[in-house]
Amino acid sequence: MTKQTKASANDELVFLPLGGSGEVGMNLNCYGYGPEDNRQWMIVDVGVTFGDLSTPGVDIIVPDPSFLEGENIRGIVLTHAHEDHIGALPWLWSRMKAPLYATPFTAFLIREKLRDNGVRDVKIIEIPIGGHVDLGPFQVDFVTMTHSIAEPNGLKITTPLGTVFHTGDWKLDPAPVIGQPTDIATITKMGDDGLLAMVCDSTNVFVEGEAGSETEAQDGLIALIGSLKKGRIAVGCFASNVARMVSVIKAADKAGRRVALAGRSMHRITAAARHVGLFNDSQRILTEDEARHWPADEILYLCTGSQGEDRAALSRVADGSHPFIKLGLGDHCIFSSRVIPGNELPIANLQDRMADRGVRLYTEKDHPGIHVSGHPCRDEIKQMYAWARPRISVPTHGMRRHLMEHAAFARDLGVEETVTPRNGDLVRLAPGKAVIIDEVPNGRLYVDGGMVVTEKGEALRERRHASTNGVLVVSFAMDKRGRIVSDIDVRAIGLPGDEVTPLGDALDDLAERVEQVVGSLKNEARDDDTVVEQAVARVLKKASQQIWDRRPIVETVILRL
Ligand SMILES: [Zn+2]
Ligand SMILES: [Zn+2]
């Protein structure tokens, strides 16, 4: 073991969020140790966030890791297998190229994810539950937490300049259905020994009370599913919440129903859970073929797509296009999940389509108790500070308002120092007072058509522009003397016409304007395609402004004869 116990004179311990601070999603946190010009790093989590209506065609957004390229990275530690913590590995690992450390369930899913995306030669080191890893100046202990996924871990990071507790995502669940409850003894011991800093989940800081136990959700589901005697039942939940799956299966069992899985991630996660022994098939899952013919009153479908995702199982059921699930009048759909901010519209849309088929809906709003959050509410956060007693509080995993409220709350609880970095803020945790000492390059990268591009990239900007303004395509031929020697063809994409201004008339008018403007150009200007294109674009944008009050993209194709 290369255990380093003493700090050198210029050594510093720094914390740097590159994603996840000031947003929910895309977690990428870095710890650095050493003198400013020779730091060693460990990375915690490499997650994604998802695109929305403002990013047409872009589903996956990842943090910009350019600061880390060429740095001495000792290892990448993954706290748990949620997409906002591991989802960016296929896109970013090659820019960090450090070994990965994770507990078995997380490691299984990472291995699959990298393989599916063709990323090879990654060293994945499986750490047992409660295990330890030596990453140079960082001695890392995995601390068992409870959350809404199998094997959530906090990290006790011991350095010569002090110990940091990185909580990861957590809540306090004394009866988590699967896995062990929170390792309170280790956390309390950190407090007893003197904890330098705690980097802590802020998601539910505005919510009073406690998140509630997975066992409560199980009881809620048993009661609701048991009360629905007739008709088919579909339950939507996150596949990664293995405890919830187990609870739904148990509820189905008690109600005399057999379970069928719908959606790729349901199968993927059950395979992972089986692999690590979290899932025993006491009640065998129906095959698709069996599900097709099973009596309606004796079946329950566990489905992906509770967030209204387009191609997921529930959406296809709502469209009537699912290969083996047909729901209609007298059937039921239970949403054992919350609405993730940003997904309100697609979820409402999904529920409308489902209701339109005659399916009855059950959500946590009208049936409290069929879902519990995976993140700590105020009473739990308070309890955590009472156990860990850090000198410095560093809120993470939240929007700006969550981080600021978390810091204020920590001060109320008597924490000496708080620091609330934004993505890219480099915080010195030790020696001395916690302070932001630098801002490093940061931002978002978009996965667009399988390529990783900057958020200011031209392609997305053009698509956005085209989606509101439309496109005009102009083509004509010119001879050696710069005269137009063909018809001028103007085509519109996404621009309207009506009875007063038929589209054909508008395009004829635009063609005339092209003829005029090209004719008005000087001889040498007409020889230069770029000059001609610019002149055409200028005149057509101006004319479009008059016709449609829009400035479409103008694409000019000149054929030189
Ligand atoms: Zn998270
Ligand atoms: Zn999580």
TrEMBL record:
Superkingdom as given in the UniProt entry: Bacteria
InterPro entries xrefs: Metallo-B-lactamas, RibonucZ/Hydroxyglut_hydro, RMMBL, RNase_J_2, RNase_J_b_CASP, RNase_J_C
Pfam families: Lactamase_B_2 (PF12706), RMMBL (PF07521), RNase_J_b_CASP (PF22505), RNase_J_C (PF17770)
Entry GO MF terms: exonuclease activity; metal ion binding; RNA binding
Family matches, as Gene3D superfamilies: 3.10.20.580, Metallo-hydrolase/oxidoreductase (3.40.50.10710), Ribonuclease Z/Hydroxyacylglutathione hydrolase-like (3.60.15.10)
Positions of the Metallo-beta-lactamase domain: 27-228
Keywords annotated in UniProt: Exonuclease, Hydrolase, Metal-binding, Nuclease, RNA-binding, Zinc
Segments crossing the lipid bilayer: none
PANTHER family, A to Z: RIBONUCLEASE J
Name this protein carries in UniProt: MBL fold metallo-hydrolase
Species of origin: Brevundimonas subvibrioides
